[in-house]
Fold:
Amino acid sequence: MMMRSALGALACLGVASGATMRASRIHAPITYDDTSSVFVDEVDAPTAGEGEVVIRVLGSSVNPVDWKLAEQGVYAAPRPLGADVSGVVAACAACARLRVGDAVWADVGCSGLYPGASGAGAWAEYVAAPEAVVARKPDSLSHAVARAMPLVALTSFPATKPAGAPRAGGA
Structure:
């Protein structure tokens, strides 16, 4: 319990009201061979709205969809991209399951689909997301491994039923 409290105290340092952070953001659509519009910017750190957590990012990954969205200019720029994140809850507001200090993972790319969610990307020091899209990271996974799993798992999981997932009774 002492470790969790210490982690929680450390994690909260960067999300005070008015705090800033670094975030890798696109300022215009990019191409495969020209990423000159990607910058590391100093931006306001997110705060947790009701039912949201702020994650101190310890790892994120690049998925094909991240690159495709950046190429197509789907979002208004400048905007951080990145969906997969692994980290530690730095702050939360009116959350039922998660607490400050919990090791978590999430696909925050889908957080823009929820009312009131920022849809902020994971290529930043902190990211806010609805508690509904964030889960506790399995202890058996390091943050380095967990950062690459959420979108892949969410994409492949539905295929397990039609592909013959194990059923009760072995049939």
In short: Confidence is low (pLDDT under 50) at residues 1-14, 113-117. The two ends are 44 Å apart (CA to CA). The chain has four helices and eight strands. The longest helix spans residues 2-11.
